[in-house]
Design goal:
The protein is an all-alpha fold. The chain has 17 helices and two strands. The radius of gyration is 21 Å and the shape is globular.
Length: 405
């Protein structure tokens, strides 16, 4: 068998090539555009199929350097931490808080359903967690980060399960959203509301001119948060080991926490972060990280899990549909805006924020506008839910390892 191990520079170059290939395919194939499949997922998965062929034919294999991938993962989640502003949560109004509550309840529910079904189907409950909020509410970024962490805990194939589940979620979330909102509208005789419902839409306007100085400032903030977070992470994990506490934080978690603390200290002192620049760095880090994570997927590990995984994902889809219909709609006020938010939550809770926006745009284009819905979901999706989701996932992973395997 031909074997080749790529060094750090080769790994970066190869990941970029696959990312560009994914972008090209996405432009050419309408299916990928329609369901917002990320370009690195397309390119990375395509190469993982090549690896599968090499594995099955026993003719070739490639291995990649993980150091830069891990750094990019930590950088991305650190940028997520800078989004967790209590000031914005407060100014966003009751609607933002209520939808964050609904999204958090769904995260917890997904992380109960996945492991319980996995246990019942005779597979590792951690693999059920890999088909829970990690890929569904979290998406491909969270899947690429938490999959390897679950594998370190003994869940072989967790990364492949999580990534496959995330791709399934992007599609299914778009398919179920519209019918649910239409049913709610007809059953409750709902009509569009007028005006902006008292929301300060300036919270969504964070555009500013990007300069070398502002970009460097963003790098400084991210680097400091990553460095402090890494140190705190090591100290905490050493403390847990010394006191026989069975908790181990993933490498990026404390970077998120430190970034959130920095953000709220600056908010309290009325100082601004270079938020656009931080977002750009985060997006680039995520794209490269995903490309690196997916191009080395071991798809052969998914074959024997395909049956149980299909059952879990079908049940998760049903749970999402029922949750949007009975819980999200009621929590958000049982009006037209609530119905639009319910269809958005289907895209959001099974896929990603762009899928939520697509669901809402399709529905409101026919039935009338909802400023409230288009304000609330992007704020929760881009600023808060990843932070909450990571904490919930870590708690469930620790509990499963200690009590449920």
């Amino acid at each position: 068998m031909f074997e080749y191990q790529l060094n750090m520079a080769e790994t970066v170059g190869f990941a970029i090539i696959l990312l560009l290939l994914g972008r090209w395919i996405k432009r050419k194939v309408n299916f990928f555009e329609r369901f917002f499949i990320p370009a690195p997922v397309i390119g990375g998965t395509l190469f993982s199929i090549v690896l599968l062929i090499g594995y099955l034919t026993e003719t070739f294999t490639f291995t990649f350097n993980d150091d830069i991938k891990n750094l990019l993962m930590i950088a991305f989640f650190t940028t997520v931490g800078f989004s967790a502003s209590l000031k914005i949560l407060k100014k966003g109004g009751v609607g933002v808080a209520l939808f964050l509550l609904a999204a958090t309840i769904l995260v917890i529910l997904q992380d109960i359903v996945g492991p319980v079904l996995a246990k019942a189907l005779g597979i590792d409950p951690l693999l059920g967690l890999a088909a829970g909020s990690i890929p569904l509410t979290g998406g491909h970024g969270t899947s690429g980060a938490f999959g390897p962490e679950l594998e370190k805990l003994g869940a072989s194939g967790a990364t492949v399960v999580a990534v496959a589940s995330a791709t399934y979620g992007l599609i299914s979330g778009c398919l179920i959203g519209g019918p649910i909102a239409r049913r709610l509208m007809i059953k409750n005789n709902l009509k569009p509301t007028e005006g902006k419902a008292g929301f300060d839409t300036s919270l969504l306007n964070t555009e500013s001119e990007m300069t070398e100085e502002s970009l460097f400032s963003a790098v400084v903030y991210i680097g400091i948060a990553m460095g402090i977070g890494a140190t705190v992470n090591i100290l905490l994990n050493n403390f847990f080991v010394a006191h026989d506490i069975k908790i181990k934080f993933p490498a990026y978690l404390m970077g998120m926490v430190v970034a959130a603390i920095i953000r709220n200290i600056l908010d309290f002192n009325h100082k601004q972060l270079p938020f656009n620049e931080i977002g750009v760095i985060g997006n680039i880090s995520l794209s490269l990280f995903l490309s690196m994570a997916l191009m080395s997927m071991k798809l052969w590990e998914l074959i024997e899990l395909a049956g149980p995984l299909s059952v879990i994902l079908i049940v998760q889809t049903i749970v999402m549909a029922l949750f949007a219909y009975y819980v999200t709609f009621n929590i958000m006020g049982r009006d037209y805006d609530a119905a639009v938010i319910a269809t958005g939550h289907c895209g959001f809770g099974l896929g990603a924020t762009p899928n939520a926006i697509a669901n809402m745009e399709t529905f409101t284009a026919t039935n009338g506008p909802s400023v409230k819905a288009f304000f609330i979901i992007p704020i929760v999706g881009s600023l808060f839910i990843d932070f909450v989701n990571a904490a919930v996932i870590q708690g469930f992973a620790t509990w499963i390892v200690n009590n449920f395997r």
